[in-house]
Amino acid sequence: MPLSLSTINKFERLPDEVLLVICRYLSSIEILSAFYGLNTRLSQTISGYCQYVSLSQVSYKRLTCICSSILPKIGLNIHSLIVSDEWQGLLSKVFLEHFDECMSSIFPHLKRLTLIAFTPTSLKLFLNGLKNLPELSELDIRLLSDKFNDENESWMLMHQLFTINENRVTSILFDGDSAPFSCEINDADACYPNIEKLTIKLNTLEDFHNLLTKLPKIHFLDVTINKIDLAFIEDHQLLPACELKEFFFRSMNFSWNFDELKTVLNRIPNVENLSIRILTEDDSRLVVGHEFFSQLSTLPLKIFNYILFYLDCSIDQTTIISTWQQFRQEMICVENDNKFGCVLYTLPFTTPQLTVFYPLISVVGNSDLIKSCGETIKSLCLYKFPPHIAEIYIILTKCRRIKHLTIEIDNYIESSKSLFSI
Asked: Are strands 80-84 and 112-116 parallel, antiparallel or unpaired?
């Protein structure tokens, strides 16, 4: 039934609070398309949605309309912008057609840029337009596809990322589903003092050491190591990262030994917040607290989080716990009848990103681990879960701040990034 004039008048007479409640159920694109420019009052009511704009999950026709008629008018108000490369790169091309040469004049107050589902090639093209944006300092990249031709291409893209916008960017975040980078650095003089905060996935431990050498002012670093090294790096070759205060380090795809981890700890003499999550098959030095305490006692730690998956059951639970008495916080060790070895972890445990394997939950159950870190988790990955919603639901009820959730059920991966993306 067509709307009458009285119906329209009644809608416009709704108080701002009711209109804003309606907007909660709409995407920013739907809000801007439906309400912006209708009249002064509605445009002012939704002004907050003009500061945080998401160009994701939108049709080609609607995006073209938004780019041509709305974004140029509200660009001065935009602080955070999300651009997607969906539809096989078509959406980012539409955006570039309108703004490639004029981003600095259209979005002069842009502070944070989020790029979703780009390939290395399309990302390079997009980065070329990020020039003379005086306030742009944060870059968030999600679902960067794994299509690097070689290690040199990977490094060149990283170099471009670190130097975009005339070195104004200080914070770069890659999500857990983005491709791992290699840091085969040929330029010995390469240095990026502008980068203060970085979350990234790297191929090897050698890549980590190469990269850390080039980041003299880094104070927050979140690193995932993807695969085992072919070469071992000697301690004396590595300079310390003296500015690093917060360090999150994880690697679950291969077995670590204490000497490899020691090369990492020797690089971070001033770290205050340290989180480590690794796996080892048989190196007892990673599960025995005496070795760890001698290495960590020289660090000015205020927060220490440790999860170790130990696949050898040659040391019993009581013996393991007795070696950690020098630590101020409680240590928990859970065995699994020789099927999974044991899991050693600290309480309390605080982390923004957590990967949970069902074998761990089957042992620990509704544990203090999930309870203690639930309020701090923003990205959660659940792997190898059976198709029973009860176990998953119990975990999710403890994790109330999730923005990114990935669940693997019986070899089928269900990702709900779009549901939690902001």
From this structure: parallel
CA atoms within 13 A on the CB side of 286: 28
Helix (H, G, I), strand (E, B) or coil at 8: helix
Report whether 246 contacts 273 (CB < 8 A): yes
Does residue 337 lie within any of the structural domains? no
pLDDT of the residue at 245: 97
Given a cut of 70, the residues of the chain with pLDDT beneath it are 1-9, 11, 87-89, 185-187, 228-237, 336-340, 355-374, 383-384, 387-389, 391, 410-422
In a domain, 353, yes or no: yes
Q: In total, how many domains does the chain have?
A: 1
Q: Dihedral (C-alpha) 233, 265, 382, 140: value to the nearest 10 degrees?
A: -80
- What does DSSP assign to residue 181? B
Q: Is residue 101 part of a domain?
A: no
CA–CA separation, 327 and 290 (whole Å)? 10
Count of other CB atoms within 10 angstroms of residue 396: 17
Task: Tally Cβ neighbours within 10 Å of residue 339.
Answer: 11
- Three-state DSSP at 56 gives coil
